[in-house]
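Pipeline run #58 for the internal structure catalog. This entry was flagged by the ingest filter as a single-chain record with no existing model, so it goes straight to prediction. Upstream metadata was stripped on purpose; only the residue string is passed forward. Reviewer on rotation: M.T. Logging verbosity set to normal.
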Amino acid sequence: MSSSPLTGDPSNDPSDDQTGRLVIQPNGRPRPLSPHLQVWRWHVTMTASILFRVTIGAASVGAVFLVAWLAAVAFGPDAFDGAAAFAGSLIGLIIGFGLTVVLFSLLLNGGRHLINDTGNGLQIKPADLLSNIAVWGPVPLAVLFWVVLFSTGRVSL
């Protein structure tokens, strides 16, 4: 049995590893494989955390649409009419609905983080409740928001 060049311990030699526990880093050093894949099971708090990061990226895309709309306002009535026509088209309404989901997701996840930052809601049951609200709440809230928009005549097809 050969020994590791770092420690002289034969149990850390990745060429002798039969369990798949060791990996070679780019610098050539053997390191144990992180146990996260074997230890952690999927949980709603993980989903809320990942979804929050995704919605931050989507909000950045929404910022591009906001800047484009502001540019259309600045370039005059013809440019604004084109932007308004795009926003009123089916694809524009779908993008608007998606950005509404993003807005509600940011609000609910931000509220979850605000509560957690005060030291509250960190136990398992409250953390699960807040995470479930943040994961499942944005779509029904966005649907309700758009139903109100259509029913009041603010938006139409």
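catalog note: The two ends are 74 Å apart (CA to CA).
catalog note: The longest strand covers residues 22-24.
status: ready for reviewer M.T.
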